[in-house]
Structures are given as C-alpha cells and as structure tokens.
Amino acid sequence: MRSGDAPAAASGRDQPTGYRYWSFWLRDPDDADDGTAWRYATEGPGTLRPADGTVLGFRFGIGTGAGGAEQPRGEETFASVCDSETPGEGERRVALVLDFGTPGEAPAGEVPPPPATACAVVADGATAAEALASVADPLRYDRSGLLCAVRGYPERGCGEQASVAPEDSPAAEEDDGDDGAGTGTGGDGVPGGTGLWFGIAAVAVLAAAALGRGRRRDR
C-alpha cells in the first residue's frame, strides 16, 4: 500500500481477489440473437479477424481466479447494432458491445460510463483490434501493449490487483443491481485461474492496430 492510501476496510473493499482489466468476448453470427451466447475469446483481438456479421464484446471488470471474468451485459444483436450500415466493396461490418462494468468494479474515484454499442465498418481482413480502434477512441495501452482503457475509461490503472466492493459499500450502492450475465469462463472450458490470466493476455492489443480506422456508428 502506498503512503497515504486508505486501509481496505476504510475504502469499503476487501483484500484483492483478482485483477481489474478489459476482457474480450465474442458470439458467432448464428448465436447473435441469444444474449447468453457470449463465450470467452480464445484468441486475442490483435490477431482475431472477425467475419462480417460477428458480434464482439469488451467488458471491464475484476476477474477472479475462482470465477473468471464477467460477461458483457445486454442482449444486443448484430441486426440491432449494424443493420443500418451498408458495407462498401472490400468492407465488412462488426458489431461491438462495450460494457464499462459496475461502480463496484470501478477504480477509486471513477464512475463507469453506461454500456454502449457501435458498428465498425472495416476493411476485409481487419482484426478485432482495428474494429475496436475505429469506434472506441481514445484507447490507452501500457508499455507491453495491454489494453488499459476504452473511450478513455478508466482514466488510470491497468491490470492492477483489486476486489469488488462489498454490497453494503457506497460504491456498490450506486449500482442498479442488474448485473446481466453471470461470472464464469464463458463456456470455453478454461478454469477460473487460468482463464483470468488468459483473459489478460487476450486483451494485449498492439497500439499499431489503430491504423486503418473504419466508419463508425454509435448507439
């Protein structure tokens, strides 16, 4: 603990139980109408090249060794996010769900933005990282290329140890109680502890992926 930091009890948080980071999820186009069909990505966004019609999810939160990472909330479909976009020749559409997490998962002094969706229209062969860069500026990375912030959130910190605020803490009381999908590894069979570290690796996106930005549409 740094000099001047409040003890964990005073801040309403227990000792660290996981790591605060952006996890990466996806749904196959055929499953996009099912809000529970999120699965933990087994390939990082820097190398995954989504097909037209893919739904990608990025969720900020605290991943624990016992339960993995929280899934993105909401039941947005590819049609609801991207139907009004028409790709040009040599382009493809990718729907993105951006879930900034709950107040209880937020770094001290920060308030998460509401969940958002965006339709990225990118060149054929573009990576998921390029799709994210086209709709979610400003992005922030650490020196190793780990994705730290989407649309500027959070303003500081990257992959640090943390724990979810207890339900009776002021931070948790700000939450509306609707956590959406539950915790877990997203059905990919990766155990919680391994899944946590794999999740951190999965969001290690190179900043160079910001090249080749496509058109964007926010909802």
UniProtKB/TrEMBL annotation:
Region annotation (Disordered) ranges: 158-191
Biased composition (Acidic residues): 170-179
Biased composition (Gly residues): 180-191
Parts of the chain that traverse the membrane: 195-212
Domain of life of the native organism: Bacteria
Database matches in InterPro entries: SCO2322-like (IPR047703)
Keywords, ordered alphabetically: Membrane, Transmembrane, Transmembrane helix
Record-linked NCBIfam families: SCO2322_fam (NF040672)
Protein name as it appears in the record: MYXO-CTERM domain-containing protein
Organism encoding this protein: Streptomyces lonarensis
Lineage summary: Bacteria, Bacillati, Actinomycetota, Actinomycetes, Kitasatosporales
